[in-house]
Amino acid sequence: MKVLHWERKRAPAGDGTWVEYEVLGRGMPVLLANGLAGPREVWTDLVRQQHDRYRFITWNYRGLQQAESNGGSHSARSIAEHARDAGAVLDAEEISRCCVVGWSMGVQTALELFSLAPNRVSSLILLSGAARVTWAEVPTAPALGRFVLRTLRLLRSAPRLVSDTLRRSLQSPEAYTWARRLGLIGEQVTADEFTTLTSGLAQMNVAVYADTLAQLSRYDARDVLPRVDVPTLVIAGDRDLFTSRREVERLVSEIRGAEYLPLPGATHYALLDEAERVNLRIEKFWNEHGYRAAAAPSA
Known about the structure:
By secondary structure, this protein is of the alpha/beta class. It has a domain at about 5-135 and about 220-290: Rossmann fold, CATH 3.40.50. About 40% of the residues lie in helices and about 15% in strands. The protein is built from eleven helices and eight strands. It has an eight-stranded mixed sheet, with helices on both faces. Helix 2 (about 80-90) packs across helix 3. The radius of gyration is 18 Å and the shape is globular. The relative contact order is 0.16. Residues about 70-75 and about 140-145 have low confidence and may be disordered.
């Protein structure tokens, strides 16, 4: 299988620090907004199939995925700040307008980028996410809501203990088995993919992660939805433990003309659970809305 070689770059953030980002491919630009704990590897299948026809750009969330040793601080940043970082990356790449694809927390980041700079977004693809999270609302998701709230309190009270425990747990051969049993990942996700996806969690600053979760629980982009006037594709699995189906349907009903691909049996990692189907639908969406791919190089 062909190895993907991303070019590492950095863009000035405007406060004396830098935003680290990566670029791969040729053709029309596509900005990828990652999840809270999801590395760029979640996009591997899409990028592998399309990088000879589209130019993919993704960035590290400062304070979370990017240790701010360049003059910044190890502190959680808001969704609005992450969206402004996305704008800084587009500036550095001299991209005036592009398709924005968000997964999980990246959905809120994408919507915030549209809110801040609608002229920079030509279309939206929103995967396994919504305008707000509902796991903190006990009436909406009682079991998961209580679990997340308890986890937040634990993360803040004993970050070192949690970090050590998390690292040991993820290194256990049973972690993959339990993730599948609990429905966190689907059967199509391999053990190697699971290890890659969770490797960043073991190195993450737990206190910052907890603060980011808290900020995420307070963020609400529902007021943005009626203002979205660009082609939009929504994709979500019906076994997603982190995304409310009601909130996914809100995206579809309140964004004018939004298209919807429901994925029966898919989890929060629908990008991996149904990789071929998702990739084909995204390619169809781009073709139908005039986001033309560059000609593939001849053999």
